[in-house]
Structures are given as C-alpha cells and as structure tokens.
Amino acid sequence: MSDNINTSIEPFAKKDGGLVALDVHAIRKDFPILQTKVYGKPLVYFDNAATSQKPKAVIDRIVHYYENENANIHRGIYHLSEMASEAYEGARNIVQKNINAASRGEIIFVRGATEGINLVASSWGRAHLHPGDEVLISGMEHHANIIPWQIICEEKGAVLKVIPVTADGELDLEAFQKLITEKTKFVSVVYVSNSIGTINSVKSIIEKAHAFRIPVLVDGCQAAPHIAIDVQELDCDFLVFSGHKIFAPTGIGVLYGKEKYLEAMPPYQTGGDMIQAVSFVKTTFKEIPYKFEAGTPDISGAIGLGTAMEYISGIGRTMIHDYEQKLLSYATEKIRQIEGLKIIGTAREKIPVISFTVAGAHPLDIGTLLDFEGIAIRTGNHCTQPLLAGFGVSATCRASLAFYNTIEEIDFFAESLDKVIKKIRS
Ligand code: ALA
Asked: How far does residue 383's CA lie from ligand 1's centre (Å)?
C-alpha cells in the first residue's frame, strides 16, 4: 500500500470564531477501557456503531447513584426516593434540552431505539392504520425499523412501501416523492445509516411528508453520537435513539414524540406507575410521559444517559463533528488504496462509518485476524440484510469511529488490514 497520504491532519475545529484543538489524547483518558490491551496490543476500538465506550463521568455517576441514591422513583415519600426521582427527572430535563423538545412530557425513557419504534408502530399503528393504508420506510433501515412496521401492517391489512437506495448509498428522493400518495399514513426513516454511514436529508423528507399531513418517525440512533439533533428544527413527529450508542449505558433509550401524537396514543405497556386509578372495572392513565413508562424504569441508566449527554455537550458538538469528518476522510483515503478493497456506501454526507468488502477475503476472516492485532471491527450484515442485498453482498467489514479515535489508530488499522488480507490471500 502506498504511504503517499498526508498524515499531518490536525484536529482543529472552530469554537467562538477561533481555532482550537480537540485534544483527543486528553479525551481518551476519560475512557478507562481505551487503555485496555488485547492479546498484549493496545485496543483499537472501531465498533462504535454497535456500541460506544463509556467515559468515567458516566461510570462514576452510576456508581454514585447506587452508593448514595438508590431507591424506587415516584413512589416513596422518603429522602432516598426523592433523590432518585429528582435525578431521574433531571435526566429527562437534560435530554429535553439537548434535543430541544418543546416539553419534558415529550421525552419517554425506553429500553432503546428498538423499543421506541415498537412502541410507535404498535400504539400509533393499532389506533390509526386501516386496510389499504401505506407505511413508507426506506431501503436503508436497520431491521428494528422494518419488522415492527411489517408486523403492524400485516395485522391491519396495510402495505409497507420502501424508498429505494441509489448505487452510492443515498436515498432516492425523487422515488420517495412518487411513493407518497393519499394512501400513505406514516413515514419511518433512518437519519444516519448504521451500516454504510449515509446521512440522509431527513429534514426534506419530513417537509415533503408534512405537505401530505403524514407524521414522520426518525431513527436517530446513529445520528445522536455524531450530529446535534434539534427536533423542533427538524420538525420530526417522533425520534428514537439508544443511550449505549452515545456513551451512556445499555438498556436505556429515548422516544421523543410531539405532544399531540403522544396524547392521542394508547399505552404500549401497562402496569405500575403509569396509572391514575385502577379498579376491576376500569383503569385511567397518567399524563405523558408517564403513560408510556410502565413498571420500574432503568433509573440508573437514565441518569447515566443524562451525564453522557452533558459530557458530549462539554466537548462541543461542532468540535466533535469537525474532528470526526477529518477521521472519516483520512481513513477512507488510506484504506481505499488497498488492492481489491471496495467501499460500500459512498454518499456525499457520511458519519465516520466505513463498510467495505475485499476481493478474495471473507469479512469474517478479516475481522478475526484483525482481532489478534487488538482491532475491533464489526463483520456481517449489521442488521441491514435488505440494504446489503441491494449492494449484492451478504456481509461487509465495518469500521465505525468515534471522537476518541485517532489518526495513529487509523494508520495501524490500515497497515494491519493490508497485512491480514495478504495473509488470507496467500
Ligand atoms: N445496530 C448495531 C450495529 O449497527 C448493533 O452494529
């Protein structure tokens, strides 16, 4: 492989009009796991689209909760329960502020994006879909934004339609325009592709759908770690994301929904803490968001999520974006020089996710051998079988980066990749 690449990329970003550096080496010290060795080699963690690593601030906040505040929320009149409730509701305020939701009632804590989509498909779909209606998703969806719609469409006699994807891995917006008709009742679309990294023009999709008074759900899972999300600016009707992709724990996520929709939707799950009054004859439910939070929630997870969002804000979204874009161009240029390597997904706007195949080398073999170098990438279909089928492949290697990754790691990755490919082919 040629080394004819400019390696002097400085991670500079504009802040308050001046140029300041994102100090990646200082940031890395915030993430204890990044100091780990794998088979005696420094961990190179390039599987951030699957899950991100957690800063010490988040880990410490969770430990603090269990050491000092643990109690069930909304139920106790005693000190600990009040502290736990305050911390949990405080996390809701942080999320509201971070995504600029109009009210805190629009923020529902769920297990993750998957549960958020299931909630909307099931609750909204059951109440509003009828035989012959159409639901529009895209060919770039994660399975979690396909199957819930498939199931509810089957149940209600509705039809699932799919926005096609171009050869570059972008959504075909002309085709989208034609697919929207009087029959379309809901659009559910991914903001950023988990498997090929494309950033979709969701704002324009939302505008076009709204012209037909169609509500739109945005799967913001892969957008949330990389892009500042303003739900009022986007004007999306629903948005979901998972905490574990944005440096928070697993098992917690957010469903944002406009008040007017959430108010009109029936509960998804029922049980404790979501009721006003229960008798054997009838139950009445609490107002939003509590109507959708049945049972004891993941209290520490929500608190950890709030801390993670504050941590990201502390670094600065613009700074993260600019730095990550440099990582993306550097890594793309570096690996595309490897003979027989093909990048799947070459959209104009991408997050630092690079999916690729290599002639004569199976993704699983590449992933396994890279692991021996301490490098973690994901191989397989990335829960997007229909998208990969459209590219004529069943599996890719995927390197997905975060703001704590470095140019040096990319260099080591590219060298190791070249080495393991030669080994496989030999
Ligand atoms: N959806 C996750 C990924 O893309 C798990 O890897």
From this structure: 7
**How far is residue 344's CA from residue 325's CA, in Å, rounded to a whole number?**
18
CA–centroid distance, residue 404 to ligand 1 (Å): 19
Among 46, 51, 140, 193, say which to mutate for ligand 1: greatest number of ligand atoms within 8 Å of CB: 51
Q: Which residues line ligand 1 (CB under 6 A)?
A: 49-50, 142, 194, 378, 382-383
Residue 246 forms part of a structural domain: yes
Q: How far apart are CA 332 and CA 335, in angstroms?
A: 6
Boundaries of domain holding 24 = 13-55+316-425
The 10s digit of each residue's pLDDT in 73-92 is: 998 899 999 999 999 999 99
Which residue in 298, 293, 301 sits closest to 247, CA to CA?
301
41-42 and 37-38 strand pairing: antiparallel
pLDDT on residue 1: 40
pTM of the model: 0.94
Specify the residue for token string 């643990």.
70
Residue 7 lies in a domain: no
Q: Are 109 and 255 in the same domain? A: yes
Confidence band (pLDDT; 50, 70, 90) for 22? confident
Token pair 């509810």 is found at 152
With the most atoms of ligand 1 within 8 angstroms of its CB, the residue from 46, 147, 194, 219 to mutate is: 194
